[in-house]
Amino acid sequence: MSSKYKKFEQKIINCQKCKRLLEYAKETKFSQRKKEFTIEQYWCKPVPSFGDLESEILIIGLAPGKHGAARTGRPFTGDYAGDILYRALYENKFSNKKISRNKNDELKLKNVRISNAVRCAPPQNKPNNNEILNCRPYLLEEIQLMPNLSYILTLGGLAHKQIISLLGLKQSNYKFGHNKIHNLPDLNWILINSYHPSRYNFNTKRLNYEMFLKVIKRITH
After folding, report:
1. I want to staple 119 with a disulfide (CB 3.0 to 4.6 A). Which of 41, 46, 129, 176 is the partner?
2. How many CB atoms lie within 10 A of CB 34?
3. What's the Rg (C-alpha) of the chain?
4. Are 58 and 151 in contact (CB under 8 A)?
């Protein structure tokens, strides 16, 4: 891991901007410590991204899941959405394993980096506007640290809006849509949208695995 990456990662982990999210993390950690069956220590801190800064592809989700990334400390790791995402990445040769369980499972990404629009788990999975704004500079800095960036895949409307906002573009000109591609002005990136691979979206049949896989295949080259 380069010193540049370590410095950026530590900045995120040490973030104390959002009081509500910090309190929620403390409450979560305390509640889990009381459960005798809880074997794994809950991370309950801002979650840094996963993958090399030299990657061409950046995948952005909404926020860490309370019992997923907020528990394991790695994006989309240890929950339903992660099972869907990493399976699709594996089937398209973007990783060496199709299951992501914890930070010590030896999973490695290939030419892909995974991040979130908000770095802490929010109550009801709904960050407020100030929390979204507080996290925006981290995403902007991350993008600036990726010299080979070619594709940005946003999982869900919030992640899409975060990207459009940090680029200073009008939301009305770049409306979110599943499997929709946006060509960004004066940039060599391609922005692709997908519904978030959450359990809710799969249960309501808004999204299925084949629909999601088609989006991942669009960034295969």
Report:
1. 46
2. 7
3. 16
4. yes
Share of the chain above pLDDT 70, in %: 95
Number of domains the chain is built from: 1
Distance of alpha carbon 119 from alpha carbon 115, whole angstroms = 8
- Where are any strands of DSSP class E within the chain? 57-61, 112-116, 151-155, 181-183, 190-194
What single DSSP character describes residue 52?
A: -
What would the DSSP string read from start to end of 148-204? T--EEEEESHHHHHHHHHHTT--GGGS---TT-EEEPTT-S-EEEEE----HHHHHT
Say how far apart CA 161 and CA 147 lie, in whole Å. Answer: 22
Sign of CA dihedral 122, 20, 71, 162: positive
Segments forming the whole domain that contains residue 156: 3-218
Residue 135 sits in a domain whose CATH number is: 3.40.470.10
